TrEMBL record:
<comment type="similarity">
    <text>Belongs to the ribonuclease III family.</text>
</comment>
<dbReference type="InterPro" id="IPR011907">
    <property type="entry name" value="RNase_III"/>
</dbReference>
<keyword id="KW-0540">Nuclease</keyword>
<keyword id="KW-0378">Hydrolase</keyword>
<dbReference type="InterPro" id="IPR014720">
    <property type="entry name" value="dsRBD_dom"/>
</dbReference>
<dbReference type="GO" id="GO:0006364">
    <property type="term" value="P:rRNA processing"/>
</dbReference>
<dbReference type="GO" id="GO:0010468">
    <property type="term" value="P:regulation of gene expression"/>
</dbReference>
<dbReference type="InterPro" id="IPR000999">
    <property type="entry name" value="RNase_III_dom"/>
</dbReference>
<protein>
    <recommendedName>
        <fullName>ribonuclease III</fullName>
        <ecNumber>3.1.26.3</ecNumber>
    </recommendedName>
</protein>
<feature type="domain" description="DRBM">
    <location>
        <begin position="152"/>
        <end position="220"/>
    </location>
</feature>
<dbReference type="GO" id="GO:0003725">
    <property type="term" value="F:double-stranded RNA binding"/>
</dbReference>
<dbReference type="Pfam" id="PF14622">
    <property type="entry name" value="Ribonucleas_3_3"/>
</dbReference>
<dbReference type="GO" id="GO:0004525">
    <property type="term" value="F:ribonuclease III activity"/>
</dbReference>
<keyword id="KW-0694">RNA-binding</keyword>
<dbReference type="Pfam" id="PF00035">
    <property type="entry name" value="dsrm"/>
</dbReference>
<dbReference type="InterPro" id="IPR036389">
    <property type="entry name" value="RNase_III_sf"/>
</dbReference>
<feature type="domain" description="RNase III">
    <location>
        <begin position="1"/>
        <end position="127"/>
    </location>
</feature>
Length: 222
């Protein structure tokens, strides 16, 4: 289905949408002078602002820390990948996977990126009110349903360690890959005993996996 028909858009400037789905690999191969990264930057800010506003109004008794933690669940990469798949945005993506040898991690990252770049395009082309209604249909309902996209194992194991007066630290074990697609391996130590390791595309993601492993080893979760 046509992008504009799918999302009930009457475009004022179609160039924004061309840019929103243009990955750098495709742009390089086809000698195109733009890609989606600038729109992704803009869309990220708009997403955070509108989700923050909704949470602020929905939970008037929540403090800054709790609101920040709650927002992270709805703007994390897992959530963005879910929204992007739900909307079928990959159908419009221009990416030269074979020519640029993109990894699975990069493909997942692109899937989340184009949700934000699409929001950036919507904002520039249709304005804030339209973008807010769009986000309300896609995201706010998940907030109301309290859907979990991101589980903060690091915070949970820290609470456990604080309660049991246990020292906790993370250590980088490995870092490999090209600059735009690195893999990190982190270890978690409780009182200097290694309790788990985790891998991720960044240190925070790897630490979350390590914390999850530690909680399983401590039989705090299954």
């Amino acid at each position: 289905m046509n992008l504009y028909e799918r999302f009930d858009i009457e475009p004022k400037n179609e160039d924004y949408y061309k840019m929103a789905f243009m990955h750098g690999s495709y742009a390089t191969v086809h000698d195109i002078k733009y890609d989606y990264e600038r729109l992704e930057f803009l869309g990220d800010s708009i997403l955070n602002m509108l989700v923050s506003e909704y949470l602020y109004k929905k939970y008037p008794k929540y403090g800054e820390g709790k609101l920040t933690k709650l927002r992270a669940n709805y703007v994390c990469q897992s959530a963005l990948i879910y929204y992007s798949h739900e909307l079928g945005l990959k159908d419009y993506l221009k990416v030269s996977v074979d020519e640029m040898n993109l990894t699975d991690n990069e493909v997942l990252s692109i899937t989340s990126d184009i949700f934000e770049s699409f929001l950036g395009a919507l904002f520039l082309d249709q304005g804030l009110a339209f973008t807010k209604r769009f986000i309300a249909k896609i995201i706010f309902r998940h907030i109301d349903e309290e859907k979990v996209f991101f589980h903060d194992y690091k915070s949970e194991i820290k609470e456990f360690c604080d309660a049991h007066e246990t020292k906790i630290r993370y250590e980088l074990l490995e870092e490999h890959g090209v600059p735009h697609d690195k893999t990190f391996v982190m270890a978690i130590y409780l009182d200097d005993e290694k309790m788990g390791t985790g891998m991720g595309k960044n240190k925070k993601e790897a630490e979350q996996e390590a914390a999850k492993k530690a909680m399983k080893n401590l039989q705090l979760i299954r």
